[in-house]
Design brief:
Number of helices: 8
Largest sheet: 5 strands, mixed
Radius of gyration: 44 Å
Order of helices and strands: HHHHHEEHEHHEEEE
Strand content: 5-15%
Oligomer: single chain
Shape: rod-shaped
Distance between the termini: 137 Å
Helix content: 25-40%
Strand order of the largest sheet: 1-2-5-3-4
Structural class: alpha+beta
Length: 306
């Protein structure tokens, strides 16, 4: 009779069966994960700092500065600047490359020049306001010219300070249809010239008429029109100003505008459209005269003519 398998194995052994017991050491239920989370958290904080820095740059930079920053991080390469591709025959022609060229870097010198020009213009505007007050005060101080104050129009324009002597129905500047001034017109020009005499700026003289055709008033002068009349009146004003001490080199231009620039656009035939305009031109060399209790002081270097 054959032995049972368990019995044969037990018989084959030299001693009792060995029992092996495995014991687990006690410890935390959640093992330690190491320091990987610190690295992830540091990356998150760095990304947030970069994000807020980007928001700050977007809110505190001008459009030109934004273009410069974009150009720094995306410089032009051969494919964008010249239209070439990665292959020998690929890419577009150089004629079309301008559409994809990188934006030019901002010109810092140009921005600085524009800022300086604005500063000069601001100082000139202040000076022109002072000149306007001086002209009006000079007219008021002469009793014989006080009634001409309504014929005086002074304003600051982009071109400079514009002083206009305006015609009126009861007090015209010239004899009708001629360039012959009345005495009070010459006196007005003399007063204005005395104020402008010490300024370095150039002066533009212009003559204007209303829209009534000169030939209709003087049928016998077919070749003499409002153009000639306005130009002759401007020349007459120039001669008076030079006689009163304005140097010839200060006269930048003398022109007749006929009725092309009416003062009253809705009433082109109104006598007030006939006038003499004197424009104190802005300086183009950055030199601005100063005004004090002693009068006008020319800028360093003497007279500056635009």
């Amino acid at each position: 009779m054959a032995d049972q398998p368990g019995q044969s194995s037990q018989a084959a052994g030299s001693g009792p069966a060995v029992v092996i017991v495995k014991k687990k050491k006690g410890g935390d239920e959640h093992p330690h994960h190491g320091g990987a989370w610190k690295v992830a958290y540091a990356d998150f904080v760095t990304a947030m700092m970069a994000f807020f820095l980007l928001l700050w740059l977007l809110s505190n930079t001008t459009p030109i500065q934004k273009q410069g920053i974009a150009h720094y991080f995306n410089p032009p390469n051969n494919s964008t600047e010249y239209g070439g591709g990665s292959g020998i025959m690929s890419g577009m022609s150089t004629i079309e490359a301008d559409q994809h060229a990188a934006i030019a870097q901002p010109d810092i010198r140009q921005e600085q020049k524009e800022s300086e020009d604005l500063a000069i213009q601001s100082r000139e505007d202040e000076l022109f306001q002072q000149i306007a007050q001086q002209v009006k005060q000079a007219v008021v101080n002469l009793p014989q010219l006080q009634m001409m104050l309504k014929n005086l129009v002074v304003e600051v324009t982009p071109e400079g300070l514009r002083i206009q002597l305006v015609d009126s129905a009861d007090r015209p500047l010239f004899n009708a249809g001629t360039a012959q001034m009345y005495d009070y017109t010459k006196q007005m020009l003399a007063v204005v010239s005395s104020v402008l005499q010490k300024l370095p700026n150039g002066i533009a003289v212009g003559g204007h008429t209303d829209s009534v055709p000169y030939r209709a008033l003087n049928p016998g002068s077919a070749d003499y029109t409002n153009w000639e009349l306005s130009a002759d009146r401007a020349q007459a004003a120039r001669r008076v100003m030079e006689k009163e001490g304005i140097p010839d080199k200060r006269i930048a231009r003398v022109a007749g505008y006929a009725a092309q620039e009416p003062l009253l656009k809705d009433a082109p035939q109104d006598p007030k459209n006939g006038r003499i305009s004197l424009i104190v031109l802005r300086s183009r060399k950055g030199s601005v005269a100063q005004f004090s209790s002693d009068g006008f002081t020319p800028p360093p270097g003497g007279v500056v003519v635009p």
